[in-house]
Design a protein that fits this description.
It is a single chain. By secondary structure, this protein is α+β, with helices and mostly antiparallel strands. It folds into 2 domains: 15-211, VC0467-like (3-Layer(aba) Sandwich), CATH 3.40.1740; 251-315, wza like domain (wza like fold, 2-Layer Sandwich), CATH 3.30.1950. 23% of the residues lie in helices and 26% in strands. It contains 8 helices and 14 strands. Strands 1, 2, 3, 4, 5, 6, 7, 8 and 9 form a 9-stranded mixed beta sheet that branches. The chain has a 3-stranded antiparallel beta sheet with strand order 11-10-14, covered by helices on one side. Strand 12 and strand 13 (280-283) form a beta hairpin. Mean pLDDT is 78; it is low at 1-23, 36-47, 219-240 and 319-328.
Length: 328
Amino acid sequence: MPSTRTALRTSRTDASTNGLARFRLAVLWRILVAGAALAIGAFAGAQELGNGSLLIASPELADPNFSHSVVLLLRRDDNGAIGVVINRVTSLAPAKVFPDLANTLGNYAGKLYRGGPLAPSRLLFLVRGLAAATVNGPEIVDKVFLAADPDSLPEILRLATGPDEFRMFAGHAEWTAGQLESEVKHGAWRVVPASADIVFSDKPTKLWEQLATRGDQVTADDRSAPPPARNKSAPGAVSATPGYPIQPGDVLQISVLHEEELEREVLVRPDGGFSFPLAGDMTALGKTVKDLRKEISDRLIRFVRDPLVTVAVKEMNGNKVYGARPLD
């Protein structure tokens, strides 16, 4: 299985932003490659939650970031898990959202996928077929390989026949150690084996309906931890019950696709309010993440064309009294 420790580079032209983004991607890439190498043997020997598993959201999982979602696990180990949502295809051409890649993408006919709520301005690629021979990243499942370096796109696109062999995902999902196992144990996700045909389905928006009733469910192993008292990672939090009303002390993760300067963690103040760049001061008290996503989008439309806003509750500290504190 191929592996690499090559630092990834983003297509941003600003020198300082490019350096920071490259560092973050390099760290993420090393984690993904190392995790795939360590877990492949165990996953091959037994059907358990691991690299190449599919997470099928429970019908009761109402978080808009993951409702009716199908997530492909890219890496799962003792440090946590990383995945991409494979059934959230947008109507957007990748070149429109990432204009720096327009010349490279050429006549590529595929649409951009919303891969998850974290780092929506960073791209991950899934590749199969002849083009996979050019990829240095790990094999995730059944000759489907992961790539993330925009510099690899010319070779990939030279050999890929289209979106049935190459797909682009903006953002990803992430879980802390033990969090995903706990969510599976408590019914937030069903786990089924993945295949190349599922990952590259020609009807991605129908995947959840097709997979939700499959019988080949597998479960998390016995390493699952007790349910956390509070959520430390936005994706798929069990503690974020359907329609959860945001409370003072909660920490929100807010990002706007392709706008790195608008990616923030914000603390909901004791008065139920918070501030966000360009959107100004807003009230979060009693609202859901879906409510806030729409309100922020409506305010940003004057400054950002067709803003794709993601809002998630990163920490649920509702009704506790907090003074001001810095967010790391």
